[in-house]
Amino acid sequence: MGNLIIRNAHIKDGEAQKDIKIIDGKIVEIAARIQNDNNLEEIDAKGNAVLPTLIESHIHPDKAFLEDRKPNLSGTLEEALKNTAELKKLYTYDDVKKRAEKVLRWSVLNGTTIMRAHPDVDPFEKTLGVEVLLDLKEKYKEVLDMQIVAFPQEGIIQSPGVLEMMEESIKMGADVVGGCPYSERTMEDTIKQLNIVFDLAEKYNLPIDMHADFGTNADDPQNTCIELICDMTIERGYQGRVAIGHVTTLGSLDPEVAAPIFDKIAKADVSIVPLPVTDMFMTGRTERKNIPRGMAPVLSMMERGVNLAYSSNNIRNAFTPFGNADLIAVGYLLQVSQQMGSADQRRAVLDMVTYNAAKAIGVRDTYGIEVGKNADIVIYDCDDLSNLINDQPLVRYVIKNGKIIVQNELSRKMASVLMGD
Ligand SMILES: [Zn+2]
């Protein structure tokens, strides 16, 4: 745990710069000018943007960097699942570790120090992904807080043995119960899976994080489960402990049909995590014109009080052959695709990947640039939060528990006429 004073921090647009004092990894004071009585290490933010570190609230490190082993030529979910299942049969511990570790390192270098990882738990990968990520969680504990979700990518009812593997994963140390209702063969099995996920979560008192409603066909009952999930959340008293990734089908509904569903999501306090790169890459593959780029409608949902984060989901594989674990780059795609162009809306995108994501994964109590919170801080070469995503700025510092873990000092050499006044 580190001690540090950060000088001249730009914490909020329109407010004066402040100093931040950190003792034993916690923020203890934020003020215009802080005395350095104990000769603490200091860094000068020089009026740059100082944010809590970014949160990757939904990512699959175990199946990253597979994009060229078996490319997804149709771009469909079906082919992605089929190709990845074949590759998973060939996984070794070292192969998974090498690829997952690259995701972790890139994430930290890009200003992310909190992550919820979703390793597959299925008949092909079994619990290998969970084992690898548990080892990496320990190895990287000083720079990254990781939660591990036991994610049944191939379903639970249609894949005998998966429920037992999920329970084994929890006993090994998985923190969250995953679900994938669209992976079952029938609606009846989909409902059975949802009940099993809630039962397992209740049994071990763990939060829930599912993949659901991934498509653009709002007439498909297996891809319109969100209301059912909200009802179960309320029935089981699980408000505030359920997050759902994708939910793209909501973007295909008429606004008057969608509005009461958004109200229900807000009432159940279920967090929604759009996964812009995957959502836009995989949806609309059967259309020939006016091709939809399916995503949950972020602005309309925000207006009705739904908590929305966003995340990378996949880094370079059959589901998403793109990505570099840079959440600011993903935010750029989100703000364009969701037509979030005003200063307030662009600023809201930044909230999605920080404070909203903290709520989605249950770390809000220790998170933020506030006295008493963990000193997990990223400083960007940018002085305007509403344009931070537009700037795609250099990360100057990443600070974890008050310790500097990444430092990129500017060393530009420019002709004086280019320096400005
Ligand atoms: Zn996912």
UniProtKB/TrEMBL annotation:
<dbReference type="InterPro" id="IPR011059">
    <property type="entry name" value="Metal-dep_hydrolase_composite"/>
</dbReference>
<dbReference type="InterPro" id="IPR013108">
    <property type="entry name" value="Amidohydro_3"/>
</dbReference>
<dbReference type="InterPro" id="IPR052349">
    <property type="entry name" value="Metallo-hydrolase_Enzymes"/>
</dbReference>
<feature type="domain" description="Amidohydrolase 3">
    <location>
        <begin position="92"/>
        <end position="406"/>
    </location>
</feature>
<dbReference type="Pfam" id="PF07969">
    <property type="entry name" value="Amidohydro_3"/>
</dbReference>
<dbReference type="InterPro" id="IPR032466">
    <property type="entry name" value="Metal_Hydrolase"/>
</dbReference>
<protein>
    <submittedName>
        <fullName>Amidohydrolase family protein</fullName>
    </submittedName>
</protein>
